[in-house]
Amino acid sequence: MATITAAEKKAAAKVQYNAFLAACPSQQLLAQVSGKWVTLVLSALGSGPDCDGEPRPMRYSELARVLAGVSPKMLSQTLKSLERDGLVDRTATATVPVSVTYELTALGISLHQTVRQLKTWSETHRDDVSAHQARFDAAR
């Protein structure tokens, strides 16, 4: 059995989680959390359409109202995916009809601010990007 030096262990660990490398498992996670509906659900969850509140539990119907354009199927799939990833907790309360709420977990909260800033940035700079695209396309 060959002995591995500390430097080799460190290099191996760095390779294991370097999203710039094609084989890095973190690329899959990055792809999952950067999807349009994932970003918008995480941004909206508990803070509403203006993203100015603190994260709090929200009912499915409230999320659906905030996220105009999302189909019920896509919202359900996105919430299930976020629950599976440990970013969202789903709580069903025995009422008639059953009341279901979704809430960010500690892991979800750690990502919440980042995606919220990405949403805000895209709203702030959409016109700038459109102008650059028009100039680029006109120059071709």
What features would you describe in this structure?
With 140 residues, this protein is mainly α. It has 6 helices and 3 strands; from the N terminus they run αααβααββα. Strand 2 and strand 3 form a beta hairpin. Strands 1-3-2 form a 3-stranded antiparallel β-sheet. 59% of the residues lie in helices and 10% in strands.
Keywords, separated by commas or semicolons:
single chain; about 140 residues; mainly alpha; 3 strands; about 60% helix; about 10% strand; flat
> How do the helices and strands follow one another from N- to C-terminus?
HHHEHHEEH
> What structural class do you assign from the helix and strand content?
mainly alpha
- Unreliable spans: none
Number of strands: 3
- Separation of termini? 60 Å
Mean pLDDT: 88
Main beta sheet strand tally, sense and closure: 3 strands, antiparallel
In short:
With 140 residues, this protein is mainly alpha-helical. Helix content is 59%, strand content 10%. The chain has a three-stranded antiparallel β-sheet with strand order 1-3-2.
